[in-house]
Design brief:
Maf protein, seven-stranded mixed β-sheet, about 190 residues
Length: about 190
């Protein structure tokens, strides 16, 4: 089974390929000559994932999936949420995003947070949604040099280190994205 992943990031696609059943071939937007700036203007993660998947399905008539991920912080009323990538501005600067989170939390003692990933699959015209989440907390300062986004300030519950301090293998064992992909993979293995 061939699925188009609504991303231009070949590394992200390779990572996901390794987590799906062996009879599933993941291709990217580049493989179907799509360099469109696909809209993501829905109010929630599932809405954005569905919007991207629908765009690809309707324009190219291929089985596809899309994802959207957000960091939700209790003390900030679940911000940045759907705006995680552009929290500090449209340039999607991870350092500025982390600075803004740390500034807004300042001395707040409630540092509970969760990462959530929504995956929308369109298979033969039918839509399916999968979700993965990991609960943790926001550190008071950055720690670690691996990963991307908010990884240097997010520590998964009961682990003692941030995502940015983990190897890719460690992160994949417990990340929100890998949990959502596992749900997708389980569904695909039954097809």
């Amino acid at each position: 089974m061939e699925l188009i992943f609504a991303t231009q990031n070949k590394n992200k696609a390779l990572e996901i390929q390794g987590l799906l059943p062996s009879n599933t071939v993941v291709k990217t937007l580049q493989d179907i000559n799509c360099d469109d700036d696909i809209p993501e203007d829905q109010p929630d993660l599932a809405g954005n994932a569905l919007q991207k998947a629908r765009y690809v399905y309707e324009k190219f008539n291929v089985n596809c999936f899309a994802d959207d991920t957000g960091l939700e912080i209790d003390a900030l009323d679940n911000e940045p949420g759907v705006f995680s990538a552009r929290y500090a501005g449209p340039e999607k600067d991870s350092e500025k995003n982390m600075d803004l989170v740390l500034k807004k939390l300042a001395d707040n003692t409630n540092r509970k947070a969760q990462f959530r990933t929504a995956i929308a699959l369109i298979l033969d015209g039918k839509e399916y949604l999968f979700e993965g989440k990991v609960i943790g907390e926001i550190r008071k300062q950055r720690s670690g040099a691996k990963g991307f986004g908010y990884d240097p300030i997010f520590e998964p519950e009961n682990y003692g280190k941030t995502f940015a301090e983990m190897s890719l293998e460690e992160k994949n064992e417990r990340s929100h994205r890998s949990r959502a992909i596992a749900a997708l993979g389980e569904f695909l293995s039954k097809k």
